[in-house]
Amino acid sequence: MSLLHLPPPSPSRLTSLRNSFSVITLNSLRVSSQRCRFNQSRLTLTPTASLTVDSHSPTTSSGRGSTEEGDSPKVLLEVRDLTAVIAESKAQILKGVNLVIREGEIHAIMGKNGSGKSTFSKVLVGHPDYEVTGGSAIFKGENLLDMDPEERSLFGLFMSFQSPIEIPGVSNMDFLNMAYNARMRKLGRKELGPIEFYEVISRKLDVVNMKIDFLNRNVNEGFSGGERKRNEILQLAVLGADLSVLDEIDSGLDVDALQDVAKAVNGLLTPKNSVLMITHYQRLLDYIRPNYIHIMDDGRIVKTGDISIAKVLEKEGYKAISSA
Amino acid sequence: MATVTFSPPFRFSPISSFPSKFRTRTRFIIPPLSSLTPRAALSDPFVLEIAQTLEDSVSTPSPSSLPPPPLQKLRDTSSESILSMSWPTRKDEPFRFIDTSFIKQSRIHPIPIPSPSSDLAGISSDTQFPSLVIVDGHIVPSASQLSGFPDGVYVGSISGISSEAIMEKVLQLVSDFHDGDLFWSLNGIGAPDVTVIFVPAGCQVEKPLHLRFYSREGGEIGSNYMPLSSPRVLVLVEKGGEIGIIEEYSGGDADKCYWANSVIQLALEEEAKIHHSYIQAQTASAAHIKWTFVRQESSSNYELVEISAGGKLSRHNLHVQQVGPDTITELSAFHLSVSDQTQDLHSRLVLDHPRGYSRQLHKSIVAHSSGQAVFDGNIKVNRYAQQTDAGQLTKNLLLEPRATVNVKPNLQIIADDVKCSHGAAISDLEEDQIFYFQARGIDLETTRKALVFAFGSEVVERLPYNSLKKKVQSHVKALLETTSGGAP
Ligand SMILES: Nc1ncnc2c1ncn2[C@@H]1O[C@H](COP(=O)(O)OP(=O)(O)O)[C@@H](O)[C@H]1O
Ligand SMILES: [Mg+2]
Asked: Residue limits of the SUF system FeS cluster assembly SufBD N-terminal domain (chain B) (predicted)?
């Protein structure tokens, strides 16, 4: 869509702006659900999924861990040599990412602007702007890269967007209801009408400290930066997830909002589910303590360590780290 | 996402290249030359035949019941103007994209006044507002509910006006528009009555008036029999007065064929305010042609929200004339074509005075391979209309291969100190929005349905009454359900 802003024409001259009729006939203006993606040959791993669901959180979690008396917890996500390009320009952004996340762990990825953090999280959830060109991503024993975005979501992977977009004309309430029902359908449970759903949702609003009229507004339309982030976390609270990827959930938040969001995320943590935070700032790590910190640079994870990395970072910047 | 963006060629042309619309006219002496038939000097036999049929249908049997003077004047001037007009063809620019031949090929039969005993059960009464029911162009007082208006407000037949002052004003306004086309004139000949809504100075009418136009007569499809109704309404709001008008059209039997040729005139005096909701929900085989002529005096405020989803052929001619400075005009329209149907809006906003503010939004969804939407939106900012702020935008969503939209947003600016913008977009749904739904586990079909519905919501949400909004929303939803839902 374009808006033409017309310069004021010079005095006493007639400006006739007249475009001829344009006939547009739709031939192939359709959105395909999937772009061509790099297809990983299917792995022989089959999930030993017995659905165990607690009555509050509708996460589609498999009964992982229950069969193994574990030394170390089960691997939840295993990414090997993942490479990806921008679908349109074929410019390579991810240049071989390796990452293993186990159940119950909190990880953080830090790195300079433009190092590929958001790209990595969007590739994990199957964003059509990117094409995977190599490597693998196994989530709960299944090949993530074989799944449609909505399957990934229903399988327990959640990503909060760095910049959640507006959906004019769709109320927050309706959107959450649709997402919730999609999950219920997947679990073979009863879908809820607007009134029953209202019950469910009104309880969750406290989690992110939001007022009820938040639900009547259109999704993210006219929301402040902070409201958008809270809205992402509200969605997470309603849908649940085995792995939540939180892309800069802290940016643009004042301290109060940051505390609210951090509290909400901490409240959702269990020994089974995991969080992957992406952040620039040390301060989020004060509220949500990660077990591991990874530094991303130019499409790769170049260093992994514990919280002490963040300290070095703060003192000496990314240079010190990537050259180490 | 595929977006086609229109960058109109900026053509600078001398004033003289304008058509002859600017010359002065001598009223009634020379029949005005219709803009649509520059070539027609001779009368069109078909047009004369309809005109004759219409004239016969309204002629009074006894001279004792002569029509009130304004109605007589309307009929006379309309009859006169029709002499130079011919039935439009696709060669006439304003009718390039619509096919009126199926009307021409039918036997046109003006619908007489319904007998008082006739069954009006089909007309639902689900409105919470004062309402006036107009069946096939005739007011049905027994089905109307008009209590609760403040003193001095008049709603009803032109024949019922007792105030000479009001009658005089009506006389002035009733044929005060010279840019009408054949259909404007045919309505003027065939209108059995003029429904007059009068709001006196300073009177703010709290509840909106719901005008419920109902088409009951219909011909069997293929029978060649086309009943015609010619409802006509005149709304006059005096200085500082205020009213909401809901103009709603619906029909009875879904598979009947009829033609509604309607006119509404709205005159806003200084500081008057009208919120006009126009809902066109005619049945799928109907022809619906309507004129809306708005005359805005200084500091008046006119807002129109149109939702057109019915009819096989729907044409809305909207003409807004500014006759004083500081006017506010807000026009929004949502058109929906879910079958083999055409939704056409031809609008013209003429700004002749300083500091006018106008916004126009047109949106259409075409969800059928032989469906069509047409928008020709002209905004004319004349020499004295300095500091005008005018914006125009059309957005169109095509959901089927071969679905068609023809849009022509256009601005003509003569004044030099103005702020104007316009734009047009034809698109599919936004890919980023689709992904947001998918990322939350929502399947593609549900997503598309929600987004298609949301596209129209931007306009529907502007309807000022919740009950009406809900009703329209569920109607739109139901219509979209009948299509493949835009499913992949
Ligand atoms: N959809 C896209 N189109 C074009 N360039 C992109 C797109 N997504 C990412 N990029 C580019 O890829 C690089 C990595 O971006 P991003 O993943 O957003 O980095 P980070 O989140 O670490 O700041 C940047 O140079 C960015 O401009
Ligand atoms: Mg980023």
From this structure: 129-210
Q: Residue A8 corresponds to which tokens in the numbers above?
A: 């004021």
Is the entire prediction scored with pTM above 0.95?
no
Residues of A in contact with B406 (CB under 8 A): 21-23
CB of residue A116 inside a 6 A radius of ligand 1? yes
- pLDDT given for residue A234 in this prediction: 94
Which segments of chain A have a pLDDT < 50? Answer: 1-69, 324
Edge-first strand order for the sheet with A75-86 is A92-102, A75-86, A130-139, A142-143
Q: What is the pLDDT of residue B125?
A: 64
Specify the pLDDT at position A71.
65
Domain ranges, ordered by start, for chain B: 45-55+70-324
pLDDT at B122: 57
Pocket test for ligand 1, best of A118, A161, A248, A279 (most atoms within 8 A of CB): A118
Contact A30 B417 (CB under 8 A): no
ipTM of the complex: 0.81
Per-domain residue ranges of chain A: 75-320
What is the total residue count of chain A?
324
pLDDT at res. B32: 40
Nearest CA in chain A to B370: A25
pLDDT at B455: 95
Q: Which residues of chain B have pLDDT under 50?
A: 1-40, 485-488
pLDDT of amino acid B298: 98
CA gap A113, A108 in Å, rounded: 15
Residues in chain A with CB shorter than 8 Å from the CB of B405 are: 23-24
For A182, which residue in chain B has the nearest alpha carbon? B442
Q: CA B367, CA B64: separation in Å to the nearest integer?
A: 54
A-B Cβ pairs (cutoff 8 Å, strict):
208
Q: Is A248 left (phi over 0), alpha (psi -120 to 50) or beta?
A: left
Of A83, A85, A92, A93, the one to substitute when testing ligand 1's pocket (max ligand atoms within 8 A of C-beta) is A93
Q: What is the pLDDT at residue A23? A: 45
B365: β partners: B336, B397
| Domain A75-320 falls under CATH 1.20.1640.10 | no
